[in-house]
Amino acid sequence: MSKQKIYWFCQIFGWSLLLAVEYVGYLFEDGFDVDVLYLAIANIFLGITLTHLYRLMIRRWNWVRLPFFQIAPRVLLSILVLALIMTMVNMPIDKIIVPQHLVGEPFLFFGYILNWGKSMLAWVLTYTAYHYVEQNRNAEIEKILLKTSIRETEAKVLRSQLNPHFVFNALNSIRALVHENPVKAQQSITQLSNLLRNSLLADRRKTVELREEIKTVEDYLALEKVRYEDRLTSYIDIDGRTLFWQVPPMMLQTLVENAIKHGVSTAIKGGFVEVHSSISTDKLHIVIRNTGVLGDKEASGGFGLANTAQRLELLYGPDAHFQIFQEDEAIVCADILIPAQSEGMFRKSVSQLER
């Protein structure tokens, strides 16, 4: 049932019940009186009309957005005005059709105000409180949606900032091959093409399968191998159960790039980069080890480390984990934990591995 239908049902039912109770009380005391019945019916329509006008008024002036200390006096004044109108309509008519009930009543006018004020108080407070709570709830929802939109925008910005990192390094790697080894240069261009394609897709996708990300890392390492030759050794060990886990696009490539730029390239004899994946306590565990000395994280890790931490937090919340530390005096280790994902992903992994 729509809110509009619920509103009109409550209006009609509430006012009919209130005045029916009063009319039944009069019926038992004085017997049937058609004028009193007509007055009760007229009061039902009058009560609905007045309270509906109040509804239109607070919606038009947006009272429910006001703070409590501003809306409270407006509500109390509205109750007084509504009770006064009902009194001004009913008291003269009652003096004609039921004068016997008004004889000897002290403070008759204030008695009417108080009687109708109770009815209006119940309706106005119920309606206003409902919309006040609903307005606050809608405001909270808007805040959540805005926060989600901001987080999504941040994630897109972070992904787009990754694109230039590998392009220049890859081009430098290919440049040396153009004359020396055209076949190898052609292969490297294909690998660079794969990297560029994946970087473009990274702006459109929140996550990719780990196997796709590993292929990007392999292409990047192959290009860097051209530059560093025997000074760079790489090893990738991927648990088959992790192939279809969803990871942020270009995340591992950025970490591997940092490992080479701030580790292997600074070592006199070169070094190594290793990538391992496994499942640990229902989480994807990725470890990247490389030759190097960590030192100042901001200086040695650059944008990539802060970027990785931000992206994991935006996508997976506090359950995700990223840490980089000095494993020993010559080896740096980056450790990533990504929380468990849908069972459908695991079923897909199993079915693919069984084929």
Topology of helices and strands:
Layout: H1 3-30, H2 34-60, H3 68-97, H4 108-160, H5 163-175, H6 177-180, H7 182-202, E1 208-209, H8 210-228, E2 232-238, E3 246-247, H9 251-262, E4 271-280, E5 283-291, H10 297-316, E6 321-328, E7 331-338, H11 343-354
Parallel strand pairs: 2-4
Antiparallel strand pairs: 1-3, 4-5, 5-7, 6-7
What does this structure look like?
The protein is α+β, with helices and mostly antiparallel strands and 355 residues long. It has helices spanning 3-30, 34-60, 68-97, 108-160, 163-175, 177-180, 182-202, 210-228, 251-262, 297-316, 343-354, and strands at residues 208-209, 232-238, 246-247, 271-280, 283-291, 321-328, 331-338. The strands form 2 sheets. Strands 2-4-5-7-6 form a 5-stranded mixed sheet. A two-stranded antiparallel ribbon has the order 1-3. Helix 8 (210-228) packs parallel to helix 9. The longest helix has 53 residues, at 108-160. It is rod-shaped, with a radius of gyration of 37 Å.
